[in-house]
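Troubleshooting log. The previous structure file for this entry was overwritten by mistake, so regenerating from the original sequence record. Sequence copied from the archived sheet and checked twice against the printout by T.R.
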Amino acid sequence: MDRKNLEESKTALINATENLIMHGKDPSKITTRQITGEAGVSPAMVNYCFGSKEALIYEVFNKLLECAKTHNPKLRELMGKKIDKVEELQELYFETIRLMLQYRGMLKAIIRYFLEDLDISLSSETIDFIGRYYKGKKTEGECILLAYQLSSINELMVLRAEDISEKCGINLMDDDVLRKVIKDNIESVLRVN
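Regenerated output below.
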């Protein structure tokens, strides 16, 4: 397959997946056949172009994140800057988790990909912040692990938001409550006094 056809197939798959999600399909229940039927390509193209259906849905999530950044100046600012304070990291997580809560079905569809397959060193804003926070007292590997712990805790929290509300009485849809939970998570992982 030539490069042009490959790029056309990738674009068609991303657009088809986004279209299915935006028309109410639960991302965790969308099948490869539904996606490829909408895209007009062979089912094998999902794995060929992305490696897995979850990686394709992750690409759609990233596209959605880019769109959200254009409509949310605070998120755009935080994702484009060097984070120097714990409070800025808390705000970054607050804005991204709020977005994830809005699209919880998408997170449900890609959580396994997030936790098992996504490169754990991709959370560069958090990793860089943790390195500066510990002033060189942690190795790069330790900073990556702490960032992964923090991201994982927050992603799982979003995934289980309804259970957390029901069993713990903590409503993550309430901005004040969400801010406190994020603050507690960050302080716990970083061992902030």
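The CA atoms of residues 24 and 105 lie 10 Å apart. Archived copy saved in two places this time.
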